[in-house]
Structure formats: C-alpha cells, structure tokens
C-alpha cells in the first residue's frame, strides 16, 4: 500500500505534494501544523494509523505549503492559502463528494472548506481543533516558543514534539523530534503556530451544516478539551466524542483503535475485517522501564549504554519466555508485555527483579554499571489490533493505566493495580498498600500496591 507522491498547483502557483492510498470511498485528511507524507510511512505509529484508514477508503493526504514535500520558502501563509492548498488537491483528482477530516490547524482548514463548498463534503471530522485560537494562550505565553522556534529550532522542535505526542517512550519521542525537524523549518513553524492561535472560526462554524464529528483526547495539552466542547456546541449538526489520552495527534495517547473506529463508523466507510474489534479478552499488562536511561547514556556514552540495554532486553525476554508472557513491543529502554494469567504476570515480574538484583550484585567484581528497572502491572480488556509488522498490539485504558503505574515506581520496584491484587488473591504474593495515586490523564485515583519480591520480605 505504498503511496505514490504526486503534485498539484494552487491558484497562486504553489506546488502541493499529495499521496493517495486505498480504493474505497474518498476520504481527504488535512495535516496539522506540520506534516511529511513520505516520512509518515516510515514511522510505524503514523503508518499504522493511515494504513487503517486506507484499508476502508481512498485516502488522500497532503503537505500544506511550506511543509513536508510541498514547496517551501517565504510563502504567503493564511487561512485562505491553506484552503487553496486543499482545493488544489481536491480539484486535480476531480473529487465530487467526499468525507473530509483535519487535525489541529488542519481541522480549521477542513471547516473553512466545508463552509465554502458544502455540496462537496459528505462528512466532516475535526480532531484536536478549536474554533477560537486567541482563547488558547495569551500572546505573552506564546511568545517564548515563537522566539525559540525562530532562533533555536533544534531546541524548540523538542518542545513542539513533546506537546503533541504526550507521554511516549524516549525512543518514540526522539523519532518524533526528528520528524518535526524534517517536516518544517523553525520560521515556518512559528508562522503556522501564530496563524493557528489567531484564527477565530466561531461565525464560520455556525455556517457548517454538514454532519460533523469533533474528537478529542481528554488530557490534550495543546488544545484543552473545553475548547473542543465549545467548537462542537457551535456546529449545527455535530456529534462530540472524547477519549482517554494526552496527545494532540490521534496515533499517540492509547486510544487509537477507538478513535479509528469512531471515524470509520461516522464516515460510513465499509468495515474491513482487519479493523473489526476482536472479542474482549482479559489481559494482564506488564511494562518495564530502565530507570535513568537518559542519564546512563550521557554518562556511559552510546555504545556502553546500548550494551547495558541489551542486557535488559536479554533478561526481560528470558523471563517472558519462562512465564508465558507475550512481548507486545519494545520501546528502547522498556518493554510492554501481556499475559493471559495475572499469576504468571506477577511471577514473571518477580523473576525479572530477582535476575536484575543478581546481576547488580556482581557489578563491583566486573566493573559494570548497575541496572535498575521499574515494573508496573494492570489488568483489563484492552483493544487488540494487528500492526504493520504483523504483530498484535494492545491499546486502550487498561494499557494507559499500566504505563502510568510504571511511571510511579522507583528502581527495583514492582507496582500493581488493585485489580491485579484481587486476581491473585490466595496465590501467596505479598503486597504493601501504597495508597491512592492520581495518574496523569485520569480523574479518579487508582489504588496501588507494591509487590514484595525480595527473599527477606
């Protein structure tokens, strides 16, 4: 399903790169503040998102002027020019009627197009979008990021990526930082960010009569959810859906399958068997995370730090194999694994920590650096979906909670949710009550328990 890059010319003579994949009903997706339609296919989390849509539609993606593979340089950037980019891509394909979606600033572009061409848009999907940019941040709060983008794009791109992705592994974060720098330069980013936060689309939104769907993650730090609710209230024919997560982009945040399913159903796209939800199944989710991996890399250097992480990978994989765990994915300095048995999951976690303790006991004799990991566990019924590599991935609230629990742990600790503790009642495990913890992105506190794994305990 590799897309072929093509070009369209706007009314003011700018070349816009676009790509088409799939052969179902037409769906056009407008990019956010930046995009790179070629790199989208090289990052698994982005590719999986767009491939899922392309399996049920004829998906058109494009890079707005000044970004990605489209024409760059000192170009005119306004709401009108962004709409003209979309018009050029639609017109060159001869699309008569299609579903239209957009992310953040792309949502504003999509809304403006729908207001101007109501007969062409069958369904409108707006993700992470606000209708009044000036309400998001005061000008003085936005100025430091704009100045940094213009003067030190390498540093500003790290901040921009972190705001968009939410909580992800260091490996994913570094990859997305590279994506941002490839997709747009600092001066253009600053212009587009200023544009996004200056647009007031309140009157426009009231004129959009096409059936609309507003989607938002509840912990979004770029566009707080109250702005999405306000947008939905202004659209005359709108449905509003919110999901757990803290990302400004739909391929991060943990609710990707649910968001995809909502879009597919709303746009009345034919459901492909690959994206149908499987029957619910109870899983125990286990995360590992190497404590202080960034500091280790800085202290030891890339080569020695990588050697240390290979030891982590070996020990974790040996424990998973011995206790029936399934490796879902590795994130550079951590693992996500699943178990059909909570007992097996806890036995595996204990075996891991004991193996690392044994290894660390020999550190002085062999001159090696100690390796501390934290482990978090939760149980529930996550969504399962086959990724682009053919491996099954898990998504949803149960997974997000497990990751958040891991972040609460210290090195050499195992923390588990109350549901895991109840599932293994009477199995001989020792727990210490750590009390209620407020996990990022969740309103209700979660009761956490430390699993005692040392022999003396």
Structure commentary:
- The chain is α/β, with parallel strands linked by helices and 457 residues long.
- It folds into 2 domains: 4-275, Rossmann fold (3-Layer(aba) Sandwich); 283-452, Nucleotide cyclase, GGDEF domain (Alpha-Beta Plaits).
- 40% of the residues lie in helices and 22% in strands.
- It is built from 16 helices and 17 strands.
- The protein has helices at residues 44-54, 79-93, 105-116, 139-151, 153-165, 170-183, 186-196, 202-205, 225-234, 256-266, 293-300, 302-322, 342-361, 363-366, 397-408, 418-423; strands at residues 4-9, 15-21, 26-30, 58-62, 98-103, 121-127, 212-217, 238-243, 283-290, 326-330, 334-339, 373-380, 383-386, 392-395, 414-417, 430-437, 446-452.
- It has an 8-stranded mixed sheet with strand order 1-2-4-3-5-6-7-8, with helices on both faces. The chain has a 7-stranded mixed sheet with strand order 10-11-9-12-15-17-16, sandwiched between helices. The chain has a two-stranded antiparallel sheet with strand order 13-14.
- Helix 4 runs antiparallel to helix 7, helix 11 (293-300) crosses helix 12 and helix 12 packs across helix 13 (342-361).
- The radius of gyration is 24 Å and the shape is elongated.
- The protein starts with a strand and ends in a 5-residue tail after the last strand.
- Mean pLDDT is 87; it is low at 272-279.
